[in-house]
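Tokens as discussed.
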């Protein structure tokens, strides 16, 4: 069997391959579909998306220069990105000012809400210091979220397409026997949020997906995140569920191939410079979400493709565009 064709922009002999990609993405953006990557600071994209010489200092590649300025080059091609970094801490007003200043006014960010809002207890990991393994007293604290996150983003709200609440796989003690305890708490939380931003919920317990979950999202005009992840049904199966598009905002995050652990994907795919494990069904599923959403009037669609989906986000985006344009 022949190896899959790598969409290597550096080796592409046709004129202006990145300009062609930019035009393909722009055509979908005009229809309200924003397709981009999850995060952007990947040196494996040098020579593919990023111009290596642009980050040279005294004749050598400067990692500091790259990390501080590669978003500017990324935003010249892609219309959106999901900022996964916001999951790990709160940031200052000055940080947000610097970040948004690097992109054009039409560029759209997605952000993950900080994990201090979405984890019921802190993971048993040394990164959490004294909180390691302890219950999280700020779980679903709307006041904290507003004060330290939403209010700081508010001056830039026109460039914030969506905010994702990514919940971990919840233990039965948190979700309740039938999920109702978690869903009721989520319902109260969503009711306390301002209407300044659009929100989407990413759950990682398959048993939560159902009429009661989608009804609560519909009540608050909140989207469901169609997520490809280790222990979730594939995106296409999620889309088949009744009521799975509960809002006029649709968010699709291609994170991992179902059945594959995060750590396994990291080991397989670094430095994320090419597709290493093609996933045609995954490309088709993302394209089906886009087609389904755009067939219904006035829906805004955001697609974020992670390097750990198949090994390289830009190439995976090309494959999804091929499915859409077929």
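Sequence:
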């Amino acid at each position: 069997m022949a190896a899959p064709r790598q969409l290597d922009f550096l080796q592409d002999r046709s004129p202006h391959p990145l300009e062609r990609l930019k035009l393909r993405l722009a055509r979908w953006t005009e229809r309200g579909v924003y397709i981009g990557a999850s995060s952007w600071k990947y040196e494996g994209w040098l020579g593919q998306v990023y111009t290596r010489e642009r980050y040279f200092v005294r004749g050598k590649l400067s990692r500091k220069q790259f990390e501080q300025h590669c978003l500017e080059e990324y935003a010249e091609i892609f219309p959106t990105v999901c900022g996964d970094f916001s999951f790990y801490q709160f940031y200052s007003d000055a940080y947000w000012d610097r970040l948004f200043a690097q992109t054009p006014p039409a560029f759209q960010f997605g952000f993950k809400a900080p994990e201090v809002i979405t984890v019921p207890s802190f993971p048993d990991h040394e990164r959490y210091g004294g909180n390691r393994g302890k219950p999280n007293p700020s779980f679903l604290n709307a006041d904290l979220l507003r004060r330290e996150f939403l209010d700081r983003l508010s001056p830039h709200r026109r460039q914030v397409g969506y905010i994702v609440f990514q919940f971990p796989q919840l233990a039965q003690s948190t979700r309740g026997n039938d999920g109702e305890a978690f869903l009721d708490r989520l319902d109260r939380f969503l009711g306390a949020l301002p209407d300044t931003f659009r929100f989407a919920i990413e759950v990682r317990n398959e048993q939560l997906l159902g009429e009661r979950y989608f009804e609560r999202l519909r009540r608050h005009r909140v989207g469901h995140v169609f997520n490809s992840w280790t222990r979730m049904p594939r995106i296409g199966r999620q889309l088949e569920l009744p009521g799975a598009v509960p809002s006029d905002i649709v968010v699709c995050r291609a994170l991992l191939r179902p059945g594959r652990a995060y750590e396994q994907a990291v080991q397989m795919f670094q430095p994320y410079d090419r597709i290493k494990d093609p996933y045609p069904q995954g490309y088709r599923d993302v394209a089906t979400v886009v087609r389904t959403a755009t067939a219904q009037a006035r829906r805004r669609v955001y697609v974020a493709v992670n390097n750990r989906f198949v090994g390289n986000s830009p190439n995976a985006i090309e494959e999804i565009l091929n499915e859409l344009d077929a």
